[in-house]
Amino acid sequence: MKRLLVIFSLSLIPLQALAVTPDTTHILNRETSWYDPSDAGPKCETVSPSPSAALPADATLDQKIAQTFILGFDAGTPKATIEALFKKYRIGGMYITGTHNAAAAGFDAALYAKLDAAAGVPIVASSDEEGVVTRYSYPAASFPPAASMGANAEKIGTAAGIVMRKNGLTTDLAPVLDLRDVGTGLKGRSFSSNPTTVATQAEAFATGLDTSGITPIFKHFPGFDSTTKGSTDDVKVVMSGSIANTTAPYKALATKFPNAGVMMGNMYVTALDSANPTSLSAKSVSYLRSTIGFSGMVTTDDLAVKSVTAATGSLANSVTRSLAAGVSMPLFANPGDAGIQAIINKVKAGVTPAAIAAADAKVMSFKTGKTVTTNTAGSGGCCPSSDANSVAPTGNNPKDVWDNLRAQGFNPTQTAGIMGNMQSESGFDPLIIQGGGHSSDPAAAGGGGYGLVQWTPGSKLIPYLHGSKPNVPTEILALKEQLDGKGASGEKAAGAALIAAGTDLRKASDAFELLYERHAGSPQPARYSQAQAILTKYGSSTTAILNSANNISSILTCDNTLSATADPRTIFQDSSNIRCAPGTKDLGIADGYHKNILIKIRICAIPNLPNTGQESHNGFGVNGANGGSVVNSRVSGQVSAMATAMKKSGLNIIASSAFRTMAHQQSLCPCDAVTVALPGTSNHQMGLAIDFGGNLPSSPGPIPGNPLWAWLTKNAATYGYSNYPREAWHWSATGN
Amino acid sequence: MKNRLILIAIALASVFIVYGLSQTSRLEITTTGGSQTNYSYAVMKQSNDKSSSTKSDSNVFSKTLATGSYEVKVTQGSLSSYAVVKTAGFFRTTKITADLKPELARSFVGDNPAVCMSLLGTTLLSNDCGGLSSDIYTHIPSTPTQPTYVDTALSPYGHFEGNARTKAGTLALFASQPPVPDNVDAAPPILHTVYTYDPTGATFQPKEKAVLDGLSSGESYSLQAYRDGFIAYDKQFTQVFYYASIHAKPVNITLEQPKTSGLNALSLSSNEKGELAVAYASAIEDEEASKNRNKSTNTEIIVSENDKSTHLTFNARYSTISYCGANLCMLNSDKHILEINTISGTSTNQIFAIHNVSKAATDDHGILALRQDGLLRIDPESKVGYIEYSLGRYQSCGLQASVNGPLLCLINPEGNNVVLHISQQANNTDSIDKKVLVLESYGDVNTLSIVGNVIYIVPKGVNIMDYVNKTNAPDPTVQGKINAGIMNAADKAGIDRNTYVINITQPL
């Protein structure tokens, strides 16, 4: 309710452009050749890209490289030129330079949608929206400098995020985690000089952004403090003191926002790497990954600034070294068509294909909001070397493997029994080739083993992938199919033995080793002990996954209690494993869309909330709703409860629209992105929005005297629903 | 004139002296139990929460105080005694006896519980406090060959709604929905089925079950022991049914609704006389909403007996309200004060209070008050108690009364949640909860889990991939040294390996 009021109040206040100073400049030096392969840094990261946001299969290597770029464009660049560059190179993302009224300059939702289409994959549409620095216009006083946000940081983040979403942005190059203001005239840019305060308020602001569907990027790692003067632009800045304080906010937030990004600063930090700017430093990236524990996307401050190009000789060298150091998305001002090609050529010569693939996968994961798994054995790098006695990677994979096996219905002891074996077979590495090395092609293993359970030959896995890339989820699905006896290499006997093992860890471990892995000789004691370790570490999670190996309806999680509202952190995520609430009807899995990304959602019919929309009456391929409103399973409990409460209050409501398929949303166009959202961006397409068109007029609220309006404004928030201020009839779990 | 002034001065002085005497008291504490040395006496005045402490080798301690209510805590090592006293004026001496008692035996019963907890035999069950989508998590105890884990063994019965301990045993209510045939569009009705269990039994197999009559399909219900049977009630207390047994027909109980608008249903409690106390309280709300609401009443309790209802209203917001004997135990969540009140007409009188309480519960043995110094056990009649469990380096995450003693959810310094059962049958002998903290902080321990007398440790170590022998294990010599170091650390921590099995796994 409070958020609703804030949003509503924002809509009433006159707009005012805030005075801002740009964060990024774009001074470009032409390249000279320089690249040191010894500074290559981590070369491989095991990632789980979502199949719903992948580069088209025909993408060239040049385009795969450009997919890692975030380019800065100013208002003067013709939009057609930008679109042409995105189409030619399939550039990964963009940010805005040199304007403080970006929407008026044409950087709007329509442009970003065109760029998505041009690139063939959703782009990272980002901007420096910090408060003291902004590119878009916000209602007066609604987006103060970070230092003034105080207890309102989350509300400000939410409200500002709504404006960003409206303008088509997906990503905010904020919040700033520095312990002092960096940049001339940018007073109040830092939340505080106290790292605890910075962490707390930045978390609140980032949570607000997240609630509005905007992904935060924390900057400028490892953080400035008062001991060092100067900014990041054109003068070499050296920080020679301890970084314990400046990195404290990153430590506090790294695991809380695994799908966010971190921007590497351009300063030299002697505690990390005195020879390279942080943005080009493998040691710094490694520190961020291993010591800070951040697994998400890593970008840079503008690499086109003089202080960086002076160190490398050219922008192309800087970008190359940045990628080689393990950065996922180097950020720099647009160097033009020829400049982009020159950078790509330099990257091809200086960065390994594995590193490019790893960066691309991180980019895709960032775009889909999926957690990325990074292998970080030891502090020096991530890769198992190619010799047989290499150190095996672990990273977060065991937990991913655990979660995926549990989601497939294996009980905790069966899961641990399988995983004890996997540890010996692959070290939980889904891309590992027997004997060492990695590939995303199982056939590359030749006659040897490949992947989590070392399918031998590796090609045995291919038909079970059904066209998907090998990664933890797809390989676990493949294993499940095999254990169910499906396909040419079915292992039904092993599956039956696992089921027969019941809750006996020893039996489960031995059954998998002897009947599936067919390990020669008697069971290895180490595998059972590893199974014990896994059960100890992960077995007491109270994630609600039911215990059944075969029935899909019984392996769904249930986090939609009647009293609870949906978690804003997960509301746009895949809900295919979320059960429809009791009293609602499961209609199966549908294609949902958020920010133009396909997300699988389970849809449920709410019998006590009748709906005239076509999906409720077997329209657009959605069958079985029998007239009930169709919603995402994540909100089915709260919507059902809200409908019940309405009825109790004497309101016999018939809704007019809820979940919409892509075909339905497209049929509503031409869309203005305000009253009808662009296809792929509407909350109706996630099953999160409900229209009460027959009961509420086609105007913004408030609607005095309307009993439904009165009821909703008083009670909807209890069920996690709020009004989109422009449309009295439109209520959703996110307020838009 | 001068004499008159002198008289007035004398009179005023007398008044001040008499007033001063009337506000001065003596407190004398005689300590029993324990050895005859190293006593620590702490006295806290409740009106300002100021305390003073004195160490002494004497078992008798006296102190001159201003009149008022005091909390007195005497400790000697792990022995303690606690009392709430009201001292009298005019230097009258208030004498109390502090009977030092040891802490009680504790055992770990599970890791990472959901919010609501209960114990069936030695097995911890936890859940999200009921509802139409709530599952029960069964914390399977460790054995020497298998670590603890969480499973949902009871889920086949449906979604957990609530439980109660009654004279007929432990009852649990589950909501379930029959399977939907493919050709049926409408969702089938939800059934509310009650199961009976043996509270000390080791299995989860119910003894008996029955579908409760009278309950609505779309509502979620909780259970509460009542008279010889139990009541089932919805979350708003608008539907309350009494069942003499699980097979009995329901008797509708109509409860009056609160007279104050805007309050949320909080709790329902009953006492031996069959009285019901239904509490409503304001939500912990944001600043903006609170400005627009009438703040004069933040809690309303409706006490009902035989169709007669009394409405009690309070400015304070209470988070826990339940009968403790004939009185009401009420935790003021804003001030962290547990009040023990008697009902008098349409108001309550405070008998005594305990300060700095974060959580409270009542059970057959009295009142449980969780504070920073530990779990306090208080007899509501004598106002005397002791610390039956000290927190040490743990922080609390939950308190629940259960069979044979409370369940404490604790957060260890590593940030992991564990559950301790505090036995009411035996005294603490080994402080295993504190010793495992020492072991867990040892540098080569990656993960430690203890349930009952079995400890599993995942050590740190570097695994080496060997494709020839299909192993991914550490160098045995190196790991052997690491594991020996862990065992040595266990010994140094004082963990008795004759009592506790320590199982070090392979590293992950």
Overview of this structure, please?
Chain A has 736 residues and is an alpha/beta fold. Chain A contains 22 helices and 19 strands. An 8-stranded parallel β-sheet of chain A has the order 12-9-7-6-4-3-2-13. In chain A, strands 8-10-11 form a 3-stranded mixed β-sheet, with no helix packed on it. In chain A, helix 10 (315-324) packs across helix 11 and helix 13 crosses helix 14. Chain A is globular. With 508 residues, chain B is mainly beta. In chain B, the strands form 10 sheets. Chain B has an 8-stranded antiparallel β-sheet, with no helix packed on it. A 4-stranded antiparallel β-sheet of chain B has the order 8-35-34-33, with no helix packed on it. In chain B, a hairpin with a 7-residue loop joins strand 19 (240-243) and strand 20 (251-252). The model of chain B has no long low-confidence stretch (mean pLDDT 88). Chains A and B meet through helix 14, helix 19, strand 15 and helix 20 of A and strand 11, strand 12, strand 36, strand 37 and strand 38 of B.
